[in-house]
């Protein structure tokens, strides 16, 4: 059974301290990433560790760990290679990319190469349809891949190199990535990318600018309100709504208390559109009356 390092235990205490004392179980997700950063997966020992520090039972922790796919339940390689084979990427060739890697690496879904470097998986969706087909290495994107470029990426990884992703930060190993997902900064030099978004992501913005389309009244210089400011504005809006309720209730009571024969104010009068059916009925009644009168006259004449 793994005995977790003192550094991991100190980090666990730091994670738990981020949450209110009566909500400590909310720390479970980052704690699972933390134990994965030490072992490379969430082992039974990792489940027991999380249960111990949070005062939960192992079944509760295991239910969460087995629900989310980012928690690996078997030893995983340094490089998790995920290929999107969902609808859009599949149409664009994602399945061919995955099949080429299966043949080249000699492993299938959630299997690891014999040297322990690469774990392959097909992913349902990597949320990058505009760059399809895509694959990720430890969740960093490689866009518009084909079988040849995908094989080239994994060969570089196995050779000890770190190919540059299409977008995002420099690649890091699975354990390093898990530390970040647990909520700790990546201290590597150049770890944080400073590049902008890819062109497909901002295509809609470019089209809006070309055609002069903008949200009515939008001011890009308007600062985003802080949480305190937003809460204050919401409280003021609620107070205003509450203050308006007595006035509305008084108006309703005054209307109901009018004596019989009291003139109806113009504000309570029916709109002009409601008069049309009344006029139509009056004309019909008049016509019917004229018809009866004419019939009576004929009867008298006879």
Name the features.
five-stranded mixed beta sheet, 302 residues, 5 strands, alpha+beta, 48% helix
**Could you name the ranges where pLDDT drops below 50 across 5 or more consecutive residues?**
294-302
The SSE order reads HHHHEHHEEEEHHHHH
Radius of gyration from CA coordinates: 35 Å
- SS element count, helices: 11
Distance between the termini: 120 Å
Spatial strand sequence of the major β-sheet: 2-3-1-4-5
Q: Any idea what the shape is?
A: extended
Helix content: 40-55%
What's the total number of strands?
5
Concise overview:
The chain has 302 residues and is of the alpha+beta class.
Question: Secondary structure elements and their pairing?
Answer:
Layout: H1 6-16, H2 28-39, H3 44-54, H4 58-65, E1 79-84, H5 87-91, H6 94-105, E2 111-112, E3 118-123, E4 135-137, E5 140-142, H7 147-158, H8 174-181, H9 203-210, H10 227-256, H11 275-301
Helix pairs in contact: 1-2, 2-3, 2-8, 3-4, 6-7
How is this structure best described in words?
The chain has 302 residues and is α+β, with helices and mostly antiparallel strands. It has helices at residues 6-16, 28-39, 44-54, 58-65, 87-91, 94-105, 147-158, 174-181, 203-210, 227-256, 275-301, and strands at residues 79-84, 111-112, 118-123, 135-137, 140-142. Helices cover 48% and strands 7% of the residues. 25% of the residues are buried. It starts with 5 loop residues before the first helix and ends with a helix. The model is unreliable at 294-302 (pLDDT under 50).
């Amino acid at each position: 059974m793994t005995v977790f390092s003192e550094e991991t235990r100190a980090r666990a205490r730091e994670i738990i301290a981020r949450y209110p004392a009566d909500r400590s179980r909310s720390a479970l997700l980052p704690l699972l990433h933390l134990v994965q950063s030490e072992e490379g997966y969430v082992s039974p020992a990792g489940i027991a560790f999380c249960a111990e520090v949070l005062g939960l039972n192992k079944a509760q922790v295991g239910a969460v760990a087995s629900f989310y796919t980012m928690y690996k339940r078997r030893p995983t390689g340094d490089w998790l290679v995920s290929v999107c084979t969902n609808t859009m990427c599949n149409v664009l060739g994602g399945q061919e990319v995955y099949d080429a890697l299966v043949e080249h690496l000699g492993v299938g879904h959630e299997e690891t190469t014999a040297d322990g470097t690469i774990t392959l998986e097909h992913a349902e969706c990597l949320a990058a349809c505009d760059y399809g087909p895509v694959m990720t290495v430890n969740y960093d994107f490689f866009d518009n891949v084909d079988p040849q470029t995908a094989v080239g990426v994994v060969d570089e990884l196995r050779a000890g190199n770190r190919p540059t992703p299409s977008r995002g930060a420099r690649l890091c190993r699975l354990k390093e990535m898990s530390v970040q997902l647990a909520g700790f900064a990546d201290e590597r030099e150049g770890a944080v990318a400073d590049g902008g978004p890819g062109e497909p992501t901002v295509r809609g913005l470019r089209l809006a600018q070309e055609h002069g389309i903008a949200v009515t009244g939008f001011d890009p210089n308007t600062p985003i309100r802080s949480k305190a400011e937003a809460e204050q504005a919401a409280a003021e809006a609620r107070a205003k709504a509450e203050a308006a309720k007595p006035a509305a209730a008084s108006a309703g009571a005054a209307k109901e208390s009018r004596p019989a024969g009291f003139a109806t104010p113009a504000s309570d009068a029916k709109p002009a559109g409601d008069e049309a059916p009344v006029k139509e009925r009056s004309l019909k009644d008049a016509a019917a009356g004229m018809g009866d009168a004419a019939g009576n006259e004929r009867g008298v004449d006879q």
